[in-house]
């Protein structure tokens, strides 16, 4: 087997560890032949683009991690000989479907666009491709029909997030018989899943990282890339039932700034640990309860690495499902991503990457957030200038590069200027000190309230603020454990940034109760987009609050920068999905039999709004088009 030099010792150690598993010896030759077969398949093909390696070096590392999680002597004691064989074969076969040209009918794509499209399809369908390969090649692999069928079941469920299918399968198919030997497919599956999730892929270079950003990978692949770049080591700590992960950080870099990365990796792996726990207990194998990330300074990070890390941490907030960035954050992230892609040393290459970014990332963001005015402005800029990027001459490419770079820089300057002036413009309507109701997290409003208390320190004690929970934006991880609540984010940031003491956290349905009692004098909204006629687009729930405020004569004020004024698209059918309804995972099959209605957007009409405050003016809604910023 042609093993890379840096892997060779590890693989030899793995083979020695196999030799110390007595129950495995009757099948050791077949296992070694399968390893040789997998390695040879990867040697003759290109790797899928631009995903982290899933070749035989990945298989070696997964087997190494497996022995850290479950020492060989323990596996030998708890598993049958057939269990052991199937587990280790699944370690080597589970990702063979990632080979882009695995079957005779797989045609090699031509050009980058076709390659990216095909490799994404391969990635999405790699479990099915793996099971097809096992089924068709079982004789070459020297597998019996029963063994092939068992491996198919394991490989079909090895993939991240298939929790519900895994739990249901485990309840109904705990024990199989193969040649009168009991095998435990669910147990083998969770062993593979956990080891696979903990593998740190090879580190990606900077160019590939930019390509990854531009092409927009699925969540699982993004986690692989994050681990490949910043996870230093992953260690199971048996006596503490914990999996410890060390993350690289630059010298003297604040731990708090690393939180998006830590949170993302911890939550994704904690989901996996939680999902497999009960099955491991049933199989009498070691159980892990928690995942913990720690930081360690990595002295070899240069300024370029630090800049890249800064961009990555911001990107996580945009794509990570455990976070829910507001409109202002989305604008910042998109502008910074484009700035990162624009490389003055490779202008034509930058335009090509930018075209990929627009097609695979920005277009998807706009589709998911159609009411975000500024995103449409960015999309329009790119549509007009890079749609024919593959036909541009070098001179034209340089001209397009300069035009886009100039536009992005101008927008960034305008945004910075707007956020400096907006609190001054909002100050007069906040200075009365009357109680405020907030709905839908807005960083602009936080900044305005911070400015208010800086000018009037007594407001920290006297100002009363009510914050709605924003339940339709809730996000949950495995088994509906809450990982994001809009109201909690708002409350926490407002407290930290302003020091306001008199803050109450309320259910959304409590708003009308407060209005009817006369406790609230004004409602403050941010905005995702404002059209030229004064309609304000935001997330679901804003219209209900505005309607109730109108009935009780409570003022509704919108605070947003002028970059959000312009043209947006409406998609009333766009659904957020069932994120707000909590239930144990066992209830999900019943819940899914009913149609969920949870639209992403609300449009608040101008007659529900008293005024719109931008850095330029305090304006009646129907006059706001005069201040639209191109």
Folded structure, characterized:
The protein has about 625 residues and is α/β, with parallel strands linked by helices. It contains 24 helices and 17 strands. The strands form five sheets. A seven-stranded mixed beta sheet has the order 10-7-6-11-14-16-17, sandwiched between helices. Strands 3-4-5 form a three-stranded mixed beta sheet. A three-stranded antiparallel beta sheet has the order 12-13-15, with helices on one face. Helix 3 crosses helix 10. The chain is globular, with a radius of gyration of 27 Å. The termini are far apart. The mean pLDDT is about 85.
Please render the helix and strand layout as text:
Elements: H1 5-19, H2 28-43, H3 56-69, H4 72-78, H5 81-93, H6 111-124, H7 126-137, H8 145-156, H9 163-172, E1 176-178, E2 181-183, H10 185-197, H11 206-215, H12 219-230, E3 231-237, E4 242-249, H13 259-282, E5 290-297, H14 303-319, H15 327-341, H16 347-368, H17 373-386, H18 394-430, E6 436-438, H19 443-455, H20 459-462, E7 464-468, E8 475-477, E9 481-484, H21 486-498, E10 502-506, H22 511-516, E11 522-525, E12 529-530, E13 536-539, H23 542-551, E14 555-559, H24 588-591, E15 601-604, E16 611-613, E17 618-619
Parallel strand pairs: 4-5, 6-7, 6-11, 7-10, 11-14, 14-16
Antiparallel strand pairs: 1-2, 3-4, 8-9, 12-13, 13-15, 16-17
Helix pairs in contact: 1-3, 2-5, 3-5, 3-10, 5-8, 5-10, 7-8, 8-10, 10-13, 11-16, 13-14, 14-15, 15-18, 16-17, 16-18, 17-18, 18-19, 19-21
